[in-house]
Write a sequence for this structure.
């Protein structure tokens, strides 16, 4: 079975856009038959990934975020693309162990909720694509 | 997101409504640190809070650490739904005093 695209949205990399992105993720996850609990957590980690792009990839400078969601046979695939300076996989390494110390919580949440996390090569000469995968709920798989 | 601050017994109660994210968590941080910084124990009311991200959680952690250093307290009341899930996922529900209703404060 080939991947089916569920969502394609593009937003400016601005904190005021996060609320709209969350709404679209929630709607897409409903269509994928995730439970309310899973929808809450998936929405959270997509928000965290967008937050990291705004904070660290663009460093507060203007930019764009493209979010695409695909449905595969057994999983949903969330791809977040930015057009900032390329980063390497070391940026996805978890360093923090004490939750009461500042920093790194968003990345921890992403790893806890998602089944698979990776950086894909950018489609052009700049940017990054973060790919997150989550198994579909039983009964919704085709 | 909106918040209301009021006095409850000998605590300052900060009631959050709506969604806390990177866009508005600096406002919550400013308010929360001001409360604790001025020597008040604080209750953060999550009853009408539908969402909180890691920047909001980091704000709570910062205020909690400040409160602890000042021998004050930071208690969360009424967490449910997505905010409660975040607290559980981070195990911070085992760090922060969390109660279901304000009646538990009286008790």
């Amino acid at each position: 079975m080939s991947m089916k695209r569920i969502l394609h949205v593009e937003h400016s990399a601005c904190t005021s856009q996060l609320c709209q992105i969350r709404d679209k993720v929630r709607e897409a996850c409903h269509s994928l038959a995730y439970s309310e609990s899973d929808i809450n957590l998936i929405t959270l980690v997509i928000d965290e990934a967008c937050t990291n792009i705004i904070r660290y990839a663009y460093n507060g400078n203007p930019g764009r975020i493209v979010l695409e969601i695909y449905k595969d046979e057994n999983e949903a695939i969330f791809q977040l693309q930015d057009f900032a300076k390329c980063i390497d996989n070391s940026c996805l390494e978890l360093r923090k162990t004490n939750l009461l110390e500042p920093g790194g919580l968003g990345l921890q949440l992403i790893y806890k909720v998602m089944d698979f996390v990776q950086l894909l090569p950018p489609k052009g000469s700049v940017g990054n694509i973060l790919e997150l995968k989550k198994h579909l709920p039983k009964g919704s798989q085709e | 997101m909106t918040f209301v601050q009021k006095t409850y017994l000998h605590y300052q109660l900060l009631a959050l409504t709506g969604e806390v994210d990177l866009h508005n968590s600096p406002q919550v941080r400013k308010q929360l640190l001001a409360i604790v910084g001025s020597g008040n124990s604080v209750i953060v009311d999550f009853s009408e809070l539908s969402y909180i991200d890691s920047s909001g959680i980091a704000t709570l952690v910062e205020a909690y650490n400040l409160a602890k250093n000042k021998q004050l307290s930071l208690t969360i009341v009424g967490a449910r739904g997505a905010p409660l899930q975040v607290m559980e996922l981070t195990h911070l529900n085992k760090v922060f005093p969390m109660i279901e209703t304000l009646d538990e404060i009286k008790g």
